[in-house]
Amino acid sequence: MAIDKELLEILVCPKCKGDLELTPEEDGIVCKACKLKYPIKEDIPIMLIDEAISLD
């Protein structure tokens, strides 16, 4: 179990406040507007801009 679907519905990107989507591998959540991936470690999303992985 990576992340609760209800939690995913209320989370927003900390940078732009946009919607987030779970990656197909369920190892992170992605903001398509900012092109950032926030990793999920031990079932906890790491929602720090400094920890985000650029998708560019």
The fraction of residues assigned to DSSP E strands is 25-35%
Largest sheet: 5 strands, antiparallel
Helical content band: 10-25%
Oligomer: single chain
The shape, in one word, is globular
What top-tier CATH class fits best?
Mainly Beta
Count of runs of 4 or more consecutive helical residues? 1
Low-confidence stretches: none
The tally of strands reads 5
Secondary structure: elements and pairs:
Blueprint: H1 5-10, E1 21-22, E2 28-31, E3 36-41, E4 44-45, E5 53-54
Antiparallel strand pairs: 1-2, 2-3, 3-4, 3-5
Q: Characteristics of this structure?
A:
5-stranded antiparallel sheet, N-terminal domain of TfIIb, 11% helix, 56 residues, 1 helix, mainly beta
Explain this structure.
- With 56 residues, this protein is mainly beta.
- It has one domain: N-terminal domain of TfIIb (Single Sheet).
- It has one helix and five strands; from the N terminus they run αβββββ.
- It has one helix spanning 5-10, and strands at 21-22, 28-31, 36-41, 44-45, 53-54.
- Strands 1, 2, 3, 4 and 5 form a five-stranded antiparallel sheet that branches.
- The chain is globular and about 25 Å long.
- The chain starts with a helix and ends with a strand.
- The model has no long low-confidence stretch (mean pLDDT 92).
